[in-house]
Amino acid sequence: MAIQASATRLFKRAAIPASRQWQRQFSAAAPALKEIQDAYILSASRTPTAKFNGSFASVSAPELGAVAIKSAVTKSGLPVEKITDVYMGNVLQGSVGQAPARQASIFAGLSPTVESMTVNKVCASGLKAVALAAQNIQLGLADAQVAGGMENMSRVPYYLPRSSQLPPFGEIKLEDGLIKDGLWDVYNKFHMGICAETTAKKYEISREDQDEYAIQSYQRAQKAWNENKFADEIAPVTVKGKKGETVVERDEGYENLRVDKMKTLKPAFLRDGTGTVTAGNASTMNDGASALVLASKDLAREFGQGNRALARIVSSADAAIDPVDFPVAPAKAVPIALERAGITKDQVAVWEFNEAFAAVIKANEKILGLQNARVNPLGGAISLGHALGSSGSRILVTLLHQLQPGEYGVAAICNGGGAASAMVVQKLDRTPKHTTEKEGGNGPGSQAATKNWNVTRIRTNVFTNGEWPIIHPQKRENFSIGPEQSISTVVGLAWSPPGLAKYRRCVLAVLTSGLLLSFYDISPQGKWTRVAIVNDCLNSYFKSLIDDEELRLRKSNIRSFTWCPPLKVPIPEQDATSYAVPPPESRWGMYLLSVTNDDNDVILLQARRSTDPTSASLYSFEVLSLTSLYEHTENQNVQPGSIFSSALRNRARASFMSPGPWIYQPTKENKGVCSAIGNVAITLGVKLKMVRHVVTLILDNDQTDSAVKYKARCVSEENTSYGGLLNNYHLTGALHWIHTEGSTEIGLAVASFAGMIPLRFTRAAYQGEKTAKKGIQVKELLFYEPTGSDMGTDSPRHWEQTSAMTVALDRVSQTPILHLGTVGGYTATMTLSGIQSSDELPETPWKKQLDNAREQFDIARDLGGYTISRIWGLASHDSLVVAAFTLHPGDTVEYRTSAEERTMLVFSHANAELTEHDDLAFPYPLPDRSPDTLRRKREAALGYILFTEGGDYSRLALSRKMLYAAACCAIVDSQNDKILSQARKALEWLASGIDVDLSNEIGKCSAPGSTIDAKTAEQLEGSGQQIFEQCTICDAGLSWYSAVEAQCAAGHLFVRCGVTFLAIQEPGLSKFCSRCGTEYLSEDLVHDELKHTCRILSDVFDTCIYCSGKFQA
User: Among 414, 968, 1073, 1104, which one carries the catalytic annotation?
Assistant: First the structure.
């Protein structure tokens, strides 16, 4: 019927003139050109490689591929809905079933709508699959792909011809599918091992050379497994058997080395006395799978942060050659890939060639000149295994986990039929710049970089049943639409003061309409995740006090919250030349959170982040005080004592909170360190309430956690010093304190019905002294619509509710300026000194930008001036203000014309609008990076290490290796006589304590700027291992010639940690400053030997010592 209707409508149209029936239409517009994009690898994972007929004999290739895919996708942090295609290499597909790649995709839990392709380029299938997936991203055809390879050689069947080809009687010959489709040269009709023999003869590779290389491959693999080098790339496989489930976590076969037998093995392919290829110096037959997640630049920027295998695919290439010469085909593909990448072989840090045969590696090394390069440093297919379809992607997975940030790596693999594939990748230490960023910026502080925004979406309304259990209907008098019926939308959010989260970052607190307050923190994968629910603390606190479940629920529900200013411990006076660092409680303060619950209690909580990595919860909370609020004043327009009056009083809830400043004063307690008084202002119903907190910090010597040195005690009570001054006002909206450090007065702005009530407190009144009632001034400021003339009583009033307030500092005078906005688009500013001077409130400097946007909205929709703007939020940073607003059709047309869906942001200075030349550089400009400045800042860390424990090294808590490194760094870099003198003492103590000759270093303490040669092999043995550094690649000693880099005697170059000054020799052990990019050893990733020492220094130097930047999460 639908087709007939369409046809009817078609034939009812006017006839097409004959002159136009066959006229072709051409467009004069130029075709749209798309620039080739970069493809990035977010994560890489592989299963263990099992022996032939080993642990995976019962697991199909697609099932192995599914394990690798699932692991890689999980590591990437990428939402699965972003993935559109899966490319998986698979060579031996007999009896595997239809579409092996699609099987692996669906078995891994990806959507059935994800397209899949199986790639068969023999041994190079896995690497070719990655190249194909990368091309989709590079051409802009996809944003996220999965690619890899899989093989189960143990399950390949024998082949039997169909009945039409069978003899009528006699024997029937079976063909081994493994040899026929995987290991047989169909062009020359012989085993591919003969090709390896041909290559060995052609390039004069002896049997001894091949055996020695094979032994080296096994030894490297054994060492790598002993040092747990493969831990980050392995995806364990659970295998079901008759005796239950077995988890396979390690490669099988790498331990099967018997050096004495290696050289006695007979040649496997040529038995005429000239053969050199044996079962020992050739790869084995194996089962396994590997997978990688590839993404565009935008997705890599969003999800790549912290991913262990983050890398850029620089180039790839394929090359073909005579089938018999397939072992040397990589030597043809690699130069093409390097040329496309724009680099030379000398710039490649690590090479991964597939060890199909030892002759393959030796021949390609000769041709490419790689005899001294890092080729397969962790072993290869000879020792780790060669699962055909997976091998190409497997060597890429292993390569990515070896590279250090900035290094280039090459993966290359030959394949039967005379061909090869190669790929160049570059390891990244941070996510790529956004695609909209302009090239050619001058670093992090450049204008090009600072005008781009990092947008992260956080799903805050998804809770598990444990986080937000089902709430059964409550009694009518207790019913709340929030927790019972809400779909949990965001109603409030605020950043914590700096320093609460890891690396001294901020935690994001989000209050949803379900009355749940959650903490969100950024994970190593760059994703924001819920790390704590504050309601759980309240529920535990009230569980022991209240038996009534309904009442306990109301008291655990959070109506509003605010972060109090951090409470900082005073810094004691110390010697100006001391290198001591104030404790975190003095630098960052203690974190106090004030909340109100559904029963109108004001609760002060102390929030802490656990420093114990084994702790079940990242954040803990302690209830310091609880103050109940009651509505004392009756509504004058309601009959006192009536049912309606009682109902209004019972329904009053706290809606807004604002914390005032802390006023410090001496403490009267014996163990007290300091005491502070602060107020929290709350809008309860339509009245103002104030709660005064008196917090005393005392030394807590009984605390088991060494990071917790002080305990807070709080006494709270309602502050009624303002008496009945506000009884006649109807308070309806936000409120905010206004103050400056050391000022004699403190202001509070409270939104009222169609206006604002500013209060001015003297310090005595703010502290709640009863004798200071006269120290409070109150004034009402009314809102009037702008009419273009002087405002007066004839001007129309503005009746919309105040929705937001913030305070920003004037850049010149450092005067705090209050900015406010209403849901009707009204704006106003006010200073504390200007409260009594005038009844008029000037407009904000950003009002002009808001009006311009409103006018454009009006003109574009032809609304005839009936357009309104609604201000929903204000925030400030130093002297900058940002306002969030939406635009809507106004008056009667508002109900039949949809509103603008986007929320817009406008920026302004505190007292002047932005000019075209203003740069919103929220990150502070990069500090002075001159050598003298860097040396001076470096000496702060050197002084702390060398003068630790007051120079009494018998109580040394740091490692001796770090003490020696600090002393050497002082010799090389410092010009401070005091530090050099202490470095000499440290070296003398080390020399006497561990019996090591350090006379060379001690003598150079008198010659600043000297260098220290690398230690010999003899010096590195014995007790010298406790203090001297060794190259993890070649075991040579490291020389000292710079404070920022190290080089071993063999030439391997490493970056030195910015605070421990030790060489960072392994990838994945670093953290980076988010501002200047300086590299540091991460206390969470280093080996046990240095973990305690790095944690001590990270607690002291918790930001970058050179620019005070925060470390990347």
Answer: 414
